[in-house]
Amino acid sequence: MSALQWLATGSGSLTLARVKAAFITAPCPADGIQFGDLPQPQPRAGEALVRVRAVSVNPIDTYIRAGMVKMNLPSPFIIGCDLAGVVEAVGAECKRFQVGDRVWCSNQGQFGRQGSFAEFACVEERWLNATPAGVRDEDAAAIALVGITAHLGLFAKARLQAGETVFVNGGAGGVGSMVVQLAKAAGARVVATAGSDERVAKARSFGADLALNHRTQDVAAAVKEFAPAGVNVFWETQREPDFDRAVPLLAPRGRFVLMAGREARPVFPVGPFYVKDCSLHGFAMFNATPDEQRVCAADLNRWLAEGKVRANIDRVLPLAEAAQAHRLQEESTLQKSGALAGKLVLKP
Asked: Would the pTM of this model clear 0.85, i.e. be above it?
C-alpha cells in the first residue's frame, strides 16, 4: 500500500490510512505505552514521510515518557527519538532527499515533535541524514543518538586531538562504546572501564587500548601506569560521577565531559581541578542544531562505511514490544540491573 493511499469507506467518503504505532496519551509508566492504530501522517512543507524500518531506545525516551523530563507533548504522543528507513514521500520545499532514499535521524519525539516508534514518521528534512550503502537500518538506528552524542562531546566540546588519551568510564554501553570507537577513529589512545569481565572484553573489541574491570582491578594505578602524565579527556557515562576519583587522573588542561545525571549533586574538588587548568564540559545532544548534528553524521557515516565504527546492539525486538523495551531500559539505567550491554533496537 502506498504511503499516501486513501481508503474509501462504505459510505463513499474518504478516510486516511492508519498505521501501527507505540504511543501514550499522558506521561505514564512503561506499562502505559499503547500499541495500536493511529492515522497515517502526511508530510507538510519541509518534511519527508519515512517508512520506518528500525528504531532504537534511549534513556531520554523513558524520561520523557515518564514525565521526568517536562516537554510539551501532543496527544496521542508517539514515543522515540531515533529511526532509520526509506523516504516514501516528500512535502513541498524538500530539496535534500527524494522518494526511495535511505535515511536515519535522531531528535524526534521532543519539543512538540512526534516520535519515531511507528510504521511511518513525518520528519523535518533538516534532521535527516543519508544511510550509507551497505549499512543496515538496524545499525543506523542504533548509532543515531549515541553516535551524535559521542561526536559532540569528543570534538565540539573536548576538542580531542590525535595522540591524546581518553578515559571512558563505562566503555561497553550505548554511548561509551561509541566514545571508544570515535576516539580511536580520530587517532586517540583509549582507556575504558566496565563492570564485568564480559563487558571488559566487549570494550576491548570496540578498540580500547586498555580495558579494566572497575570491580576487581585498581583502575587508578592501571591508568597512571598507562598514561603517567594523566588522561586528556575523561568521559563520564554514569549518572553519579565521582570527581574525587576522577580529577587526579586528569592531565594538566584535561577536559571532563558530562552528559548524564540530571539529579546528581556530587562533591567537587575545586582546588585539585583548577590548579591543573582543567575544564568541565556538560551538554545535552538534543540542544544541538540540525546543522551541528549534520557535521557529526557526516563523520559517523564515513566511519560506518569504512568499518571503523559499528553499532553496539544488545537485542532486536518487534515494535509491538515497546513497553517491554522501555522497562528493560529503565532497569538498566535507573536500577543499574546490568540488563543491557548495548542498544535496544525495534522493528515494525
From this structure: yes
